[in-house]
Automatic annotation (TrEMBL):
<dbReference type="InterPro" id="IPR010987">
    <property type="entry name" value="Glutathione-S-Trfase_C-like"/>
</dbReference>
<dbReference type="InterPro" id="IPR036249">
    <property type="entry name" value="Thioredoxin-like_sf"/>
</dbReference>
<dbReference type="InterPro" id="IPR040079">
    <property type="entry name" value="Glutathione_S-Trfase"/>
</dbReference>
<dbReference type="GO" id="GO:0004364">
    <property type="term" value="F:glutathione transferase activity"/>
</dbReference>
<feature type="domain" description="GST N-terminal">
    <location>
        <begin position="4"/>
        <end position="85"/>
    </location>
</feature>
<dbReference type="InterPro" id="IPR004045">
    <property type="entry name" value="Glutathione_S-Trfase_N"/>
</dbReference>
<dbReference type="Pfam" id="PF13410">
    <property type="entry name" value="GST_C_2"/>
</dbReference>
<feature type="domain" description="GST C-terminal">
    <location>
        <begin position="93"/>
        <end position="224"/>
    </location>
</feature>
<dbReference type="InterPro" id="IPR045073">
    <property type="entry name" value="Omega/Tau-like"/>
</dbReference>
<dbReference type="Pfam" id="PF02798">
    <property type="entry name" value="GST_N"/>
</dbReference>
<dbReference type="GO" id="GO:0006749">
    <property type="term" value="P:glutathione metabolic process"/>
</dbReference>
<dbReference type="InterPro" id="IPR036282">
    <property type="entry name" value="Glutathione-S-Trfase_C_sf"/>
</dbReference>
<dbReference type="InterPro" id="IPR045074">
    <property type="entry name" value="GST_C_Tau"/>
</dbReference>
<keyword id="KW-0808">Transferase</keyword>
<protein>
    <recommendedName>
        <fullName>glutathione transferase</fullName>
        <ecNumber>2.5.1.18</ecNumber>
    </recommendedName>
</protein>
<dbReference type="GO" id="GO:0005737">
    <property type="term" value="C:cytoplasm"/>
</dbReference>
Length: 231
């Protein structure tokens, strides 16, 4: 499409913002990042104006039209742009599409709530959150085992990135920080081999270019933990 203007209002470390970037990158759509400096306490004018209801990142600006909410952005990107390899982020079959939305929602609600609890709590509550997160990973391992037939098709979408990968992928970038904060190991290679292959494939896929530097991200999340849950 000629003279397209695609921008994402985001914060560099945000898993939600990265979902939008993953979707755009997977589809090969060039975009510009409008980086928030402090989207919690000092929101930019563009963020407040483009998402007046929630005032949260990310917001996709497509030719000036704002669209908030990461899951909606993924679906919109899939509807608007063709992909380089001809495959969509959501599968064509209606049942498969519904199930892709179901597992994206699972990652968004169940896994996310456990991960947030690891970040924000201590003691027995945190231990329970770790167990819950591992149980979610175990469930996703089963989904992936069915979906990914081989090392050449390591994603939830098979051989190409799909909606679930765009939703879950950014959370996985925070895993090393959760392991330190919650004093545990996901140990994907040993315990969840399909998730391990998925994680490795994700990090070398077309969306790797928009991932933040791992050390910088780790430092950021550990700092966030200190701020939100001081010793
Ligand atoms: N449901 C939203 C959640 C987005 C979200 O939680 N954004 C956070 C990023 S850390 C945010 O902007 N927080 C600032 C605030 O809530 O004021 C989505 O999926 O896009």
């Amino acid at each position: 499409m000629a003279s397209e203007e695609v921008k994402v209002v985001t914060f560099w470390a945000s898993p939600y913002g990265l979902r939008a970037e993953f979707a755009l990158s997977a589809k090969g759509v060039p975009y510009e990042r409008l980086l928030e400096v402090d989207h919690w306490y000092n929101k930019s004018k563009i963020l407040v104006e483009s998402n007046p209801v929630y005032k949260q990142i990310p917001v996709l600006l497509h030719n000036g039209k704002p669209l908030p909410e990461s899951l909606l952005i993924i679906e919109y990107v899939d509807d608007v742009w063709p992909s380089p390899h001809g495959k969509h982020l959501l599968p064509p079959d209606p049942y498969d599409r519904a199930m892709a939305r179901f597992w994206s929602d699972f990652a968004e609600k169940k896994l996310n709530s456990a991960l947030k609890s690891i970040l924000l709590t201590k003691g027995d509550t945190q231990k329970a959150a770790v167990e819950e997160a591992l149980s979610c990973i175990s469930t996703l391992e089963g989904v992936l085992e069915k979906a990914s037939s081989s090392k050449d098709a390591p994603f939830f979408g098979g051989d190409h990135l799909g909606m679930i990968d765009c939703v879950l992928g950014p959370f996985s970038l925070w895993f090393p920080a959760y392991e330190i904060i919650g004093d545990f190991k996901f140990d994907l290679e040993e315990n969840y081999p399909h998730m391990h292959t998925w994680y490795q494939a994700l990090r070398t896929s077309s969306v790797a270019a928009c991932m933040p530097d791992s050390d910088k991200l780790l430092e950021f999340v550990l700092g966030l933990r200190k701020m939100l849950c001081p010793e």
